[in-house]
Design brief:
- Helices cover 33% and strands 16% of the residues.
- By secondary structure, the chain is of the alpha/beta class.
- The chain has 2 domains: 118 residues, NAD(P)-binding Rossmann-like Domain (Rossmann fold); 186 residues, Rossmann fold (3-Layer(aba) Sandwich).
- Helix 5 packs across helix 8.
- It is elongated and about 75 Å long.
- 35% of the residues are buried.
Amino acid sequence: MTPQPKRKLLIVTYHRLDLWIAPAWFAERLRGEFPELEVVQLNSYENVGQEIADAEIMFGISLRPERFLAARNLRWIHSQAAAVHQFLFPELVNSDVILTNARDVHGPVVAEQVIAMMFALARQIPAAVRYQQKHVWGQEAMWRASSRPRELAGATVGLVGLGSIGRNVAKRASFLGMRVIAVREHPEKEKPQYVDEVLPSSKLSDLLARSDYVVLSTPVTPETTGMIGGQQLAAMKPDACMINVGRGPLIDETALIEALREHKIGGAALDVFDEEPLPSASPLWDFENLLITPHTAGMSDKMWERHYALFSENLRRYFSGQPLAGLVDKRSGY
């Protein structure tokens, strides 16, 4: 009897940062657990066009439209990132190819970053670090500053995005005694645990006016691009803080620069930017009321173990015809 040909999985994880490149054990463990799979791993895009031609499944960061069109057998793409806008070109959106993402891999650790940012802003940690570097005892100066140290307990956090990141932030913020409100496109859906109130997207200004900390974690879509501009920043409390762990294009960067320069809001913490790496000439670097982290919110030494747990479970579901975790609505963009 002629043996059945193996079904092909192509892993493409090229990146300048080695953290985002799948370790060798990832493919080896998949080969051991799924002997029916031919697993090919590429750490560059050099041979993607050739290898993807007969691949049924792809695990990776991005894919160009012309390479997608060459993938005659492709049935499922898994994005190792939570963001999937890089895959949403018309050829893929209009196809029958399934798209899943890693939102449940990144949600818990990004939520930890959000909580760390809120603590840093509330307790004036960046200011304390600056005084430490100058060998200055800054106690009086920190108390007399326009933005004094304050408590998170009793404060309100407004979530723009109720995906894995938003829900994990809600859980942790609730445990800290914070009130959690959120906006979502379909507020009629069941209210997530730890969220006190859900408003429709049309009530974004209400959320901004009521929140002490606003957390952006929504995906980038035509509707969300530039959703925070001058008008929205003006709606915030003068001592409120904006936190963005979604993507840079969610915020009109020029409007944010003005709001920070004029102290129209209490401060901000950004992990993502319109252009990355953030250019050294950007005025954002110089604002003392802005905390910058270089897109590190998703970094974790446990990341690839979580990737494996999610992806291997999805492979089992895929082969048995069960619904996949992290399924993306390609037309909605999330």
